Amino acid sequence: MAEAKIEEIGCEDRISALPEDVLVEILDLLPTKDVVATMILSKRWLSIWTMVRTLEYKEDMDDESKKSVWWFLNKSLQLHKSPVIDSLCIELGPQCPTTDDVDIGKWVAKAVDCLVWTLTIKLLWSAGPTSLPKSLYSCDTLFELTLSDQILVNVPSSSSAYLPFLSDLELIRVVYKDEDSLVTLLSSCPVLETLFVKRKIDDNVKKFTIKVPSLLYLWYINDSSDVVDYTDRCLVVDAPAVNTCRITDYSLDSFSIEDMPCLQDANINVEESYHPDDKFLTSFSSVLSLHLNLSDAMVMRCTNVNFSRLIKLSICPYGPDMLETLLLLLKNAPKLKEFLVDYVRIILLLFLL
Fold it and tell me: What per-residue string of b and e applies to 41-74 under the rule 16 or more CB within 10 Å gives b?
């Protein structure tokens, strides 16, 4: 029997033979820690990772015993050479050292210098709020910006703050230097379309003003029900182009909302004891689809509003004795096609009693 011949086949490294710009495109699809690890593959790969445009550094929030991602972030960004950064995401947690060695501003400034498009900064460390470089608020390439938690929004004067292409902005539990910083930030965004706000109790703003003519999507959450001094707090909205609006507010703040003639979808959930005026609900009179968490006072006010375009209505009453009033509300919605009453909350309350 003839001896079997064993043919040795060499494995050709075709990936390494690709042009550098193609390799960078591939690496941009991988997690940053895996991208940096490719430097050990060969001399060909030693510096390719330094040219990636998508960078993400996220703390492991589930294991506080692990070393902070800050050390990896700080070192890798020192070696990073790409003149352009498409996206930078930094999320630091309690593991992060609270010493002078942690300079978030330096890397935010680097991202701005590298013409960043998408920037996410989330600081959950134990230190107090930190300011970001003023150059951030005049970045003329930024499309998406997320600022979260221990960040002090300190915007320079309106003459120097300008974000000409920013279309998506998220402000999550941040602190504002003052109300002017908030107003200046929003007024510096001429094409802003999406705004997501989640407030904290002590954010240093009493009159929260959202005046953005270009705004299409508004999400506003203020679930701080334990605010003590709420008598002079207020949400002011002047955004006539909005077509989707979500407002959740348990803080007992007052509201001043201008008409939204383009509104298609609205979800309003406010504190049970809030007593709205007619103007508050009239602001939503042009809506096509509306979801309301209704107190008795809210239902009574609804009967004074003509919802001439309303097609879909979903309500969640706080009390069980609203049938007669609801019928009056329906008379003010001549085009209504869908009507849902969610009594789950009431059933639960009765069960608990």
Answer: eeeebeebbbbbbbbbbbbeeeeeeeebbbeebb
Residue type, 298: M
SS3 72: helix
- Give the pLDDT confidence of 120-141 residue by residue, as tens digits: 999 988 888 999 999 999 999 9
Count of beta carbons in the 10 Å neighbourhood of residue 100: 6
Q: Mind giving me the DSSP string for 115-165?
A: T-SEEEEEE-SSS--EE--GGGGG-TT--EEEEEESEEE----TTT---TT
Categorise residue 3: left if φ over 0, alpha if ψ from -120 to 50, beta otherwise: beta
**pLDDT for 345:** 52
- Mark 244-282 as b/e (b = at least 16 C-beta within 10 Å): bbbbbbbbbbbbebeebeebbbbbbbbbeebebeeebbb
CA distance 125 to 150: 7
Residue 327, φ and ψ in degrees, nearest 5: -65, -35
- Give the pLDDT of residue 1: 46
The pair of three-digit structure tokens given for residue 163, joined into one six-digit string? 């974000």
Q: Are strands 289-294 and 130-131 parallel, antiparallel or unpaired?
A: unpaired
Token pair listed for 177: 């230097």
Tokens of 194: 């999406």
Q: What does the H/E/C string look like for 296-318?
A: HHHHHHHCCCCCCCCCEEEEEEC
Helix (H) or strand (E) holding 32: helix 32-37
pLDDT score for 145: 98
Interval 51-90: pLDDT, tens: 889 999 988 766 665 778 888 888 889 988 999 999 999 9
d(CA 322, CA 351): 19
Low-confidence ranges of the chain (pLDDT < 50): 1-2, 5-9, 346-353
Triad 262, 263, 265: Cα angle to 5°: 150
Res 113: pLDDT: 96
Is beta strand 289-294 parallel, antiparallel or unpaired with respect to 254-257?
Answer: unpaired
